């Protein structure tokens, strides 16, 4: 029964029943406001201290509630990586899929059941490095899915290797003298491929990030929210940001909000400005709407 006195927010029924029987119910902490959206039996999470994924996940869950969606029709999909663990922590229908294949799984879900609200949340390595081909074609087709790309500029889970978003000069385990490959600009890539909604925020701007996720969830078509997030273990410590708070200070000093900026002008360079805001918000028929119109056209011949 000593476990009941541990400082924990887990309050499953078994714990409460035993605690009440032993007169220890007061020792158990109350329910966290998000407990009903979390698989608390899988917590604590695996993320490193200072990682921004807790903030990103919180913003997503708050946005799902504020968007007033039917949570029974929400599916959360991810690939492999640190961000890929998010679906395992949310108490929703969720899929932890293979590396680089989150968007094809999400596409299949949407096509099989168009009533579903399909959300992809994964990292830059999974979505635009290994999964880059799927990313651009889902945007081109304007699949009605919401994609949240957590960009920490490296492969955090597998040892801090360089990826497709690592800035020029960035130090990683595979670029010890600095990265010399030209990186992708995730927001510009989405916009150029046909996304109808594109926004970018750092996790420091949590409230703005949350509002953008709400807008993305309610936007018909392929919507992208890029989340710039600290990775103190993999990327930060190699750039004099050994703790998450160091990276948040960097975001405060370098973050510049410019709504409506051409995404092509939002490249991220080491020591340069991080342009944030809502860059794209347009209307365009979704893939399924185009498909339905074609069927009507064929039937009318």
Give the topology, please:
Layout: H1 13-21, H2 53-66, E1 74-78, H3 86-89, E2 93-96, H4 102-112, E3 117-123, H5 124-130, H6 132-141, E4 146-151, H7 186-193, E5 197-202, H8 206-218, E6 223-228, H9 244-254, E7 255-257, E8 274-281, H10 287-299
Parallel strand pairs: 1-2, 1-3, 3-4, 4-6, 5-6, 7-8
Antiparallel strand pairs: 5-8
Helix pairs in contact: 2-8, 5-6, 6-7
Outline: globular
The CATH topology of the largest domain, please?
A: Rossmann fold
Strand order of the largest sheet: 2-1-3-4-6-5-8-7
CA radius of gyration is 20 Å
Regions with pLDDT < 50 over 5+ consecutive residues? 1-16, 21-28
Describe, in plain words, how this protein is organized in 3D.
This protein is α/β, with parallel strands linked by helices. The protein folds into 2 domains: 1-31, no CATH class; 35-299, 3-Layer(aba) Sandwich (Rossmann fold), CATH 3.40.50. It is built from 10 helices and 8 strands. The protein has an 8-stranded mixed beta sheet, sandwiched between helices. The longest helix has 14 residues, at 53-66. The radius of gyration is 20 Å and the shape is globular. Residues 1-16 and 21-28 have low confidence and may be disordered.
């Amino acid at each position: 029964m000593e476990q009941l006195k541990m400082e924990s927010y887990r309050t499953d029924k078994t714990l409460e029943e035993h605690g009440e029987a032993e007169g220890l119910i007061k020792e158990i902490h109350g329910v966290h406001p998000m407990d009903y959206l979390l698989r608390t039996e899988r917590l604590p999470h695996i993320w490193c201290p200072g990682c921004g994924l807790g903030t990103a996940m919180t913003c997503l869950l708050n946005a799902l509630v504020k968007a007033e969606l039917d949570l029974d029709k929400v599916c959360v999909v991810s690939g492999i990586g640190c961000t890929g663990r998010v679906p395992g922590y949310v108490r929703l229908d969720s899929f932890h899929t293979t590396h680089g294949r989150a968007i094809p799984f999400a596409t299949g879900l949407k096509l099989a059941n168009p009533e579903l609200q399909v959300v992809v949340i994964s990292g830059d390595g999974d979505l635009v490095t290994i999964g880059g081909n799927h990313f651009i074609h889902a945007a081109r087709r304007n699949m009605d899915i919401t994609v949240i790309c957590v960009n920490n500029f490296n492969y955090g889970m597998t040892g801090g290797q360089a990826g497709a978003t690592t800035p020029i000069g960035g130090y990683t385990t595979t670029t010890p003298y600095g990265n010399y490959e030209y990186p992708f600009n995730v927001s510009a890539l989405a916009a150029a491929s046909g996304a109808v909604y594109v926004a970018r925020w750092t996790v420091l701007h949590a409230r703005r990030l949350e509002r953008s996720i709400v807008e993305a969830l309610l936007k018909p078509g392929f919507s992208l929210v890029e989340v710039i997030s600290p990775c103190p273990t993999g990327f930060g410590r190699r750039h004099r940001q050994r703790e998450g708070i160091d990276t948040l200070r960097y975001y405060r000093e370098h973050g510049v909000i410019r709504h409506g900026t051409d995404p092509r002008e939002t490249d991220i360079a080491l020591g340069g400005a991080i342009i944030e805001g809502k860059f794209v918000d347009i209307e365009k028929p979704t893939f399924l709407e185009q498909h339905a119109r074609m069927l009507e056209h064929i039937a009318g011949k």
